[in-house]
Amino acid sequence: MFLTYDDLAGIFPKSSGIRDYSLSFRTVSFLAETLQPKGLYIPMLDQVEDLQTAIANGAVAAIWLEGREIPTYTPNHFPIFYTDNLIEGIKKILYQYKTKIQNIELENGIITNFTFFENKVPEEYYQKTDIVEIEDQWKIILDTIIKKGGKENA
Length: 154
Fold this sequence. Notes:
Elements: E1 3-4, H1 5-11, E2 15-16, E3 24-25, E4 27-29, E5 39-41, H2 51-56, E6 59-65, E7 80-83, H3 86-101, E8 113-116, E9 119-120, H4 131-147
Parallel strand pairs: 4-5, 4-8, 5-6, 6-7
Antiparallel strand pairs: 1-3, 2-7, 8-9
């Protein structure tokens, strides 16, 4: 089961571009240079200029910091979801997706791959129910973001 446009529209009410509620995402990534088929790109490290690279590598939508200028080369139909805090937005996406798939028997490979930096979020994450364990994993991910140049309130 994939993350969908409809899932994101529920988290991020402000958006631009085409509103395609049948759109699903196979990949969520911070890395523009990574192949991301049917990808959702999140420019965490202020690499706004990399949106074109992300699109070339398969991104079909993006999460965007509200107020940040969108590059002029961005296609008019390209879906962009706006947030006032990227890290909180990412948390909401992961929690929403975890809830969505928690009680579903997943077929091998039929999930959205979350690629943050060099590593994918392990499939075991979605099976966790202990909130402390989930928060510990988030702390590791957020510390990595901040060390690589992201802003805690980005």
